[in-house]
Amino acid sequence: TEIYTGLSTGELLGGGSSQVGAVRMLERFITTHPLLPAEKLAMENAIRDLLKPLARQNLAHAPQTLAAVGGTATSLAAIIQDLEEYSDEKVTGVSVSLEELQSVYAQLGRLTLEERRRLPALQAGREDVIVCGAAILLQAAQLLGFRKLYVSAWDLLYARLALSVD
């Protein structure tokens, strides 16, 4: 998981990577679906602890906008929109509120793998890791103090360009 802060000009101010990832959290904490409350809490605490130093470093630059790129963010945007089929075009540029993120995370945590497989917007093969990715994204947004984030299926440059015309 990477968190970077930059200017609208493209200048990078700071940031870096952490040793938290959806697959790593899944392997380390989750034994069953739906999630067990104790495992969910342990995972959330570990994510928070791993992201805190990186969040602190980024907060020093007073970030104004949170752009989320990658499979977790795009999958969650598709689920939140209740898309019948995943589409890069339909998820890119979508604004997701912290409340929506919390709600979809809670919903996914209550579902079995089979129930997640039946979500039309969730790409095949993501049903086990999506809830861990959602936990990471939620913790990052909370640690950085954001009430919403913007999603991009492509890259941060594209996200920055899309946000600059928004």
Describe this structure in words.
It is a single chain. With about 170 residues, the chain is of the alpha+beta class. The chain has a single domain, classed as Nucleotidyltransferase, domain 5. Helix content is about 50%, strand content about 15%. The strands form two sheets. Strands 3-5-4 form a three-stranded mixed β-sheet, with helices on both faces. The chain has a two-stranded antiparallel ribbon with strand order 1-2. β1 and β2 (about 10-15) form a beta hairpin.
Mean pLDDT: 89
Coarse shape: globular
N-end to C-end Cα span: 26 Å
User: What's the architecture in CATH terms?
Assistant: 2-Layer Sandwich
Structurally, the number of domains stands at 1
Provide the spatial order of strands within the biggest beta sheet.
Answer: 3-5-4
**CATH superfamily descriptor:** Exopolyphosphatase. Domain 2
Low-confidence stretches: 158-166
Number of strands: 5
* Structural class designation: alpha+beta
Count of runs of 4 or more consecutive helical residues: 8
Order of helices and strands: EEHHEHHEHHHEH
Q: What is the CATH class name?
A: Alpha Beta
Helix content: 40-55%
| CATH topology-level fold name | Nucleotidyltransferase, domain 5
The value of Rg in angstroms is 15 Å
> Mind summarizing the main beta sheet?
3 strands, mixed
Strand content: 5-15%
Topology (elements, then pairings):
Elements: E1 2-6, E2 12-17, H1 22-29, H2 37-59, E3 67-69, H3 71-80, H4 88-91, E4 95-97, H5 98-110, H6 113-117, H7 130-144, E5 148-152, H8 156-164
